[in-house]
Amino acid sequence: MEMLASLVVAVLFACGAYLVLRARTFPVAIGLALLSYGVNLFLFFTGRLVTGAPPLAGGAAATADPLPQALVLTAIVIGFGMTAFVVALSLRARGELGNDHVDGAGEER
Amino acid sequence: MSHWIMAPLLLPLLAGMVNLLLVRHGPGPQRLVSLLTTAALLPVAILLLLRADSGEIVLYQLGNWPAPFGISLVLDRLSAMLLVLTALLALPALVAATAGDDRRGENFHVLFPLQLFGINGAFLTGDLFNLFVFFEVMLIASYGLALHGGGRDRVRAGLHYVVLNLIGSSLFLVAIGTLYGIAGTLNMADLAIYTTTAAVEQTPLLRAAALLLLTVFALKAAVLPLHLWLPALYSAGIAPVAALFAIMTKVGVYAILRTFTLILPVTGPGADVAAVLPAVALLTIALGALGALGAHRLTVLIAYLVVVSVGTLLAGISLFTVPGLTAALFYLPHTTLITAGLFLLAALIAGRRGAVGDQLQAVAVNPGNLLGGLFFLAAIAVAGMPPLGGFLGKLLLLQAVPPPQAPWLWTVVLVGGLAAIVALSRAGSSLFWRTEGEGVAGTGLPLPLLTSTVLLLALTVALTVWAAPLTRYAEATATQLLRPQETVEAVLGREAGR
Questions:
Q1: Mean pLDDT, chain B, as a whole number?
Q2: DSSP type of residue B259
Q3: Considering its fold, how many domains does chain A have in total?
Q4: Among A94, A66, A106, A105, which Cα is nearest to B180's?
Q5: What's the pLDDT score for residue B213?
Q6: Of the candidates B129, B150, B167, which has its C-beta nearest A35's C-beta?
Q7: Cα-based distances in Å from B437 to B354, B361, B374, B444
Q8: I need a labelling partner for B340 at 20 to 30 A (CA). Which of A24, A51, B180, B277 fits?
Q9: Residues in a beta bridge with B71
Q10: Model confidence over A79-104: pLDDT tens digits?
Q11: Is residue A107 a part of any domain in this protein?
Q12: Under 8 Å between Cβ of B262 and B487
């Protein structure tokens, strides 16, 4: 289970890193979204992978850590808002600069 | 009394929210609200500074939940000093914006206080995750402010800035997750206890987290090779925003200072940082100086001087000794205020030169003797020439270096200073002396902008006059920073510190 979880995070990060290095704003925005998914899962997994455990300390029994879920919630809100902002800004850049290259450079250059 | 710690957070947050409601009523009421709150921040910050100067580390627990479970705000000498600096910088920047720049979009007076909220919060928080949250508040406001006024250059520079910082935020969260996964806490003082007593098998993870945090903070501070966004962004933004952004790189410097003295001390898991930082700092100075020499616009030149100043600060910090930190902390307020003043001065000069703006090329317009005199004063101050404070800061830095590292640091700092002087005199002569060719004079000198510029320059002179108390304070701050157990005791109680 741990292996699968870390593989998922690794694949998300790899795809995200590849996409943010692209030269067009659309793949960059998708890459940022994938990076933030990877980060959210990573934060979630830092509470350890347990199933069916109560969320608060109850003696010697295994417990699920509720704090990473609170952290993830904050990170999701911020990440979601920022992805929306990047999309809006990319559209603005497309309008102002005349193309969707991240440096605003067109094919003619 | 201790509730006053909340004031630097609540005042700007409230002002931002009130201004959001006042958007329909035009800039008049919004200006009043922003000016009143920003002006009120200064006495509050000074009050907190006096409190912190007694050597006491003040802890404030929101909702009275005990640390490490609740949200902690920690006020020590370093955060108090930076709060005062933020307030001192914000007021002139805001006054300068009332010259008309704040009307170029309707949300300036919403974003400006929220930016202050984020900056002040980052300085006060005692929790790593809240540091992330306040960073985000600060960055989100700064995205809006950087794009304020619109236009091709701002959008292009803003897009790079936003994307880079989002990647930085992801890395920050990965570092936070790593630390939480092994330590089970994110309270800075609690982490400090954990990292100093951590088992050997945890060390690789702690070292990885330390280097990740360094990368994130280096991006915020614009340290080589993560500085490339800064010159484009600062030169594209409107002058008051560029002036306020002078403190933003220092937030990154603050975070480096806080993390690697308290959470991951360089004597423990932060050892790699202590090994990397001196070289990176010197390379930052060198590359910033080269950029300043090659700049074709005055604002780009000043932006590269910001990069040089960050490198100089880190050169002092990377020593992690009392003299090194003292030099950096003495230099910090000086360099922040003078670079902010230079951005405002550049706007004044550009306004006088009409269509050419701040491009370093000859036009038939002389910006005037007043601006010439101010530029001369500012150039001396920012290049670190005697008799102004920048010189004293660099002198302290040169004295602080232990002999083995001295040849490198002396060479880079002194040659970097020389490059700054060459770049500034080249800029000054083409702006003020080469009055040839065509050109139409621009507008006059907007009074708010001129007042703010003079105020910021006067503040740097004042810092020189009161260099002795400032040095004493910087030294006390450095001593406090290098005794992290004092913070741990203040936050978690006397037992935990032992």
A1: 88
A2: I
A3: 1
A4: A66
A5: 93
A6: B167
A7: 14, 10, 25, 21
A8: B277
A9: B62
A10: 899 999 999 999 988 888 888 888 87
A11: no
A12: yes
- CB contact at 8 A, B326 and B286: no
Residue A16 sits in which domain range? 2-49+64-97
Facing residue for A78 by CB, picked from B136, B160, B162: B136
Q: How confident is the model at residue B113 (pLDDT cuts 50, 70, 90)?
A: very high
DSSP state of B224: T
Mean pLDDT throughout B341-369? 81
Residue B278 to residues B263, B274, B286, B412, Cα–Cα distance (Å)? 20, 7, 13, 11
DSSP H helices, B401-446, are 406-432
CATH number at residue A9: 1.10.287
In chain B, which residues have their Cβ closer than 8 Å to the Cβ of A78?
133, 136, 169
Q: Of all residues in chain B, what percent carry a pLDDT higher than 90?
A: 42
The CA-based angle B335-B336-B341, given to 5 degrees, is 95
Instruction: List the single residue in B with minimal CA-CA distance to A78.
Output: B136
Quick check: is A105 in a domain? no
- CB neighbour class for B498 (10 Å; exposed up to 12, middle 13-18, buried from 19): exposed
CB B292 within 8 A of CB B304: yes
Q: How confident is the model at residue B219 (pLDDT cuts 50, 70, 90)?
A: very high
Whether A103 sits inside 8 A of B156 (CB atoms) is yes
CA proximity to B205, closest of B175, B243, B226: B175
B385/B9 Cα distance (integer angstroms): 37
Q: What is the pLDDT of residues B437-464, one digit of tens each?
A: 666 666 778 888 888 899 999 999 998 8
CB–CB contact A86 B166 (8 Å): yes
Could you give the 3-state DSSP secondary structure of residue A101? strand
Tell me the nearest-neighbour CA distance from B119 into chain A, angstroms.
17
Q: What is the pLDDT of residues B31-71, one digit of tens each?
A: 899 999 999 999 999 999 999 888 888 888 888 888 778 88
Dump pLDDT digits (tens) for A56-84.
665 666 777 888 888 899 899 998 999 99
Grouping H, G, I as helix, E, B as strand and the rest as coil, residue B358 is coil
Residue B129: HSE in the Cβ half-sphere, 13 Å Cα cutoff: 24
Report d(CA B54, CA B77) in Å as an integer. 9
Backbone dihedral region for residue B261 (phi beyond 0: left; psi -120 to 50: alpha; all else: beta): alpha
CB atoms within 10 A of CB A81: 12
Q: Which residues pair with B187 in a beta bridge?
A: B127
Which residues lie across from B171 on neighbouring strands?
none
Domain membership of residue A24 (yes or no) is: yes
Closest to B377 (Cα-Cα) out of B430, B431, B453, B434: B453
Q: Residue B381 class from Cβ within 10 Å (0-12 exposed, 13-18 middle, 19+ buried)? A: buried
Residue A92 lies in a domain: yes
* Cβ-nearest to A28 among B163, B170, B180: B163
Token code pair at residue A24: 């067009």
CA distance B311 to B96: 28
Distance CA B278, CA B406 (A): 11
Is residue B254 within 8 Å of B82, Cβ to Cβ? yes
**ipTM of predicted complex:** 0.92
Q: How large is the angle between the packed helices B322-352 and B389-400, nearest 10 degrees? A: 150
